[in-house]
Amino acid sequence: MTKKKSESGIDFEKELTGGHKTYNKKVGKWWLKLSSDKKHARAYRAIANHLKENVPGDPRLIIDYACGSGRLLARLVRRFPKAKVIGIDGSRLMLDDAEERVEELGKRAAGRVELIESPLPNFELDCKDADLVVFCFANICPEADDQDYYDEHGATRRADVTTARRLARAREPNPDWETVTCSTEDLYNAMMDGKVISRNLRSLLRKGGVCARVEYANAKRKELTELVRMRMDFEAGALGKSFEGKQAEQIFRLRKSTYIGSRVIEAVYHHTGDDADRIGGFLVNLLREI
Fold it and tell me: How far is CA 23 from CA 19, 38, 92, 109, in A?
């Protein structure tokens, strides 16, 4: 199928190679507008409510990793009135908007919030032992110059490299089920980059803490093929079984996966131009650090 031109007028394939500063420019302005619409407001409210109902205990420290414009962060502050909430993002444009969201919370609530500007991943962040780390609709954009940093933090680990290579080259038994449209090498690189980010998420958690990953999806987890689930779990650091005789490092265990139908999936359509990406919603995956 021929890829349609993005309705946003943005060449995402080109723009998203610019690293974290990408979101200070055209893509950032696009995301600020999109993430402030009514469908995203409903989604962020649903996510915050879901976390309030399903995260055990009473979190004292919550980190919103790649917090963007703070739309979800503000709701987390309201849902968890005893928690300190830290938002981290690499874009000054995003954080300037997040500061406005925080000010609207009032002095008492705003006093529990800290915003940190930092490229991500960053293993030197001075915030650890979180009860909950949230990774929602995030799009980390590594540059070619970042590769040494990724390698230093796990992108060359043999077990992961071998497993990711095998998962990237594998194909569905039924060609009609195949969802991969990029090259094997691009898929491999995306999975390995994602695994490093998952290690960074884990490094911010206390022992036994919870990571909430919110990702666009076209279907419930149980409706996805086994290969798609294994690729997803590898990237999240939650792949608990071997693939073609090789076992990747497991750093999380999936505790619960919830699908919520939502028109926010149209953000994916903006990237792909594929009508199939107009239908779906998102998954809220709760993972426990191990």
Answer: 8, 21, 8, 27
Question: What confidence tier does 5 reach under pLDDT thresholds 50, 70, 90?
Answer: very low
- Cα dihedral 103, 107, 112, 116 sign: positive
SS3 57: coil
Positive or negative torsion for Cα 207, 212, 217, 222: positive
Other Cβ atoms less than 10 A from the Cβ of 241: the count is 9
Does the pTM surpass 0.90? The reply is yes
SS (H, E, C) 152-198: HHHHCCHHHHHHHHHHHHCCCCCHHHCCCCCCHHHHHHHHHHHHHHH
Mean pLDDT across 175-187: 88
Domain 12-289 fold = Rossmann fold (3.40.50)
Burial 26-63 (b: 16+ CB within 10 A, else e): bbbebbbebbeeeebeebbebbbebbeeebeeebebbb
Q: How much is the average pLDDT of 191-205?
A: 98
Kindly report the backbone phi and psi dihedral angles of residue 263, in degrees, each rounded to the nearest multiple of 5, phi listed first.
-75, 0
Answer for the pair 38, 106: CB distance below 8 angstroms, yes or no: no
Name, in order, each residue with C-beta under 8 angstroms of 65's C-beta and a sequence gap of 6 or more. Answer: 88, 120, 133, 134, 135, 138, 200, 201, 204
Does residue 1 surpass a pLDDT of 60?
A: no
d(CA 32, CA 27): 9
pLDDT exceeds cutoff 50 at 3: no
Token couple for 106: 């009032």
**Mean pLDDT of the region 56-62:** 95
Token pair, residue 66, equals: 């790649």
pLDDT at 244 over 70: yes
